[in-house]
Specification:
This protein is an alpha/beta fold. The chain has helices spanning 19-35, 48-52, 59-81, 98-109, 126-131, 139-148, and strands at residues 7-11, 40-41, 83-89, 113-117, 134-136. Helix 1 (19-35) links the parallel strand 1 (7-11) and strand 2 (40-41).
């Protein structure tokens, strides 16, 4: 398997948000990165797994659902490991963000460049404050910061 260390991983909530909310900012970022010749890894390309978990009610289906979740988790971690920069949607309006926080911690332990994007009125958790490389208050500024690393 070829390692693609120059990717940008697009981290952000996918739980408790609409498909449009989770994908619209990622599409905008991907277009800018594509134009600059920078590959990105978008975890929403695996969003269909959420659909597979709907209506799970008996044990065999629950086990199947857990296996799907674990597979997605491992694939997301591999994407982060194969990226140079992680662009993070840390806006409070984006949902729970538990998975995003775990991705940021993993990226931090792998010494990745972490570009945090949040609203000016947000007060990110102190762990976020300790881990990011840069914090920006607009998606455009965050994308520009990512581009500076390439």
């Amino acid at each position: 398997m070829t390692k693609h260390k120059n990717h940008v991983y697009l981290a952000g909530p996918m739980e408790d948000v609409s498909v449009d909310h989770m994908t619209s900012w990622r599409r905008q970022a991907a277009e800018r990165f594509d134009a600059a010749g920078i590959d990105n890894l978008d975890p929403t390309r695996r969003v269909s797994f959420h659909d597979q978990l709907q209506g799970v009610d008996h044990l065999q289906e629950i086990v199947k659902g857990m296996n799907i979740c674990k597979r997605i988790f491992k694939q997301d971690l591999e994407d982060i490991a194969n990226s140079k920069v992680v662009l993070v949607d840390a806006r409070r309006s984006s949902g729970k963000g538990t998975g995003t926080a775990m991705e940021v911690m993993f990226a931090h332990t792998k010494n990745k460049i972490i570009i945090l994007w949040c609203d000016e009125s947000d007060h990110p958790h102190p762990f976020y404050e300790a881990m990011y490389s840069e914090k920006h208050y607009s998606l455009d500024e965050a994308i520009e910061a990512v581009l500076e690393y390439y």
